What does this fold into?
Amino acid sequence: MQATPQQFLLAFEDMAAVVPIPLPPIVIPPLPAGVAEYPQLRYMGSKHRLLPWVHSVLAELTFSTALDAFSGSGCVAYLLKHMGKQVCANDFLHFSSVIGAAVIGNSHQLLTEEDCSLLLRTNRRRKQFIERTFTGVFYDVESLRFLDNFWANLPQLESDEKRAMALSSIFRACVKKQPRGVFTVTGDPLRYDDGRRDLRLSLREHFLESAAAFNQVVFDNGHANSARQGDVYDIPPGAFDLVYMDPPYVPRADDNCYIKRYHFLEGLASYWRASGTEILTETMSHKIPKRFTPFSYRRTAVDAFRRLFQHFHRSTLVLSYSSNGYPSLPVLVELMREVKPVVVVHEKEHRYHFGTHDRVSEERASVREFLIVGSE
It folds into this structure.
């Protein structure tokens, strides 16, 4: 008499109880030395706290060259650099590409005491653009004058790498001095004083601490690494063994506009001289124009992901995604299967921190993080 499926299952369970099947232990490779020292920027969606998990997934893949297609704070590109890969960090924001130039493209240049002294020296020829524009919006007058003075001295540094290091340090200083780390909160920052040291330090003190932090993470991994600013679709397909993608996906609540949150840093990267940094003076926080990205809208997001996967179909694909995003995980898996025969989803619980914003709901803050890996 043939056993029913239920009887077969019970028999199998009984057998397993008598003869246990040993499972191989889960071995998580240690994070490369130095990665944990990467300066945190309180950047929206940063994977800094997830780097051990990201590393455990990437370490199982075979590749020599890697593109961090939406590099943001640069921490994943920095992980890849520490893994001994030849890395390119790309972002459509200028200030993010500057950070990439400082820690990914730069392998030797540090900010010396002489460099910092030069940047802090009083420059009577400084312009007063930041002071005139942002008084009463961000920081106190002394801080705004400090930033004008910093930019007046910046061109005197001897190399692009040193200037990228200096700008990255001032970006971090501005973020740490700003309540919640974003530039949607205007007025006196001490209104939000909760005893944090960051709000009480001067921008000068923050800059010097950040310069030391960035100096600590500069190293040479033996490869010609690079950073660029531009549209991800303009990058030649097939140029990298692996493409890591962490795009600004559509959330189910609020929005994902990086310009809204970091417009001050984007303007500061060029002293508001670059195209697209014209200040919208009618806005309370003096924002700059929002830039279109197809990943930010439901009507265009699915096609944007399909085009992204097709563009880099010759490379191993690694997509970082969250359960609170749109499109859904099954849709993204199917899109990746259009170009990759093998698609594996790695999953981890995670809770995002939104500065000191206590009103963020548990549902929005607690998510499932996914790494969707497509390979041959």
Q: What stands out?
A: Residues 1-20, 352-364 have pLDDT under 50 and may be disordered. The first strand starts at residue 65 and ends at 68.
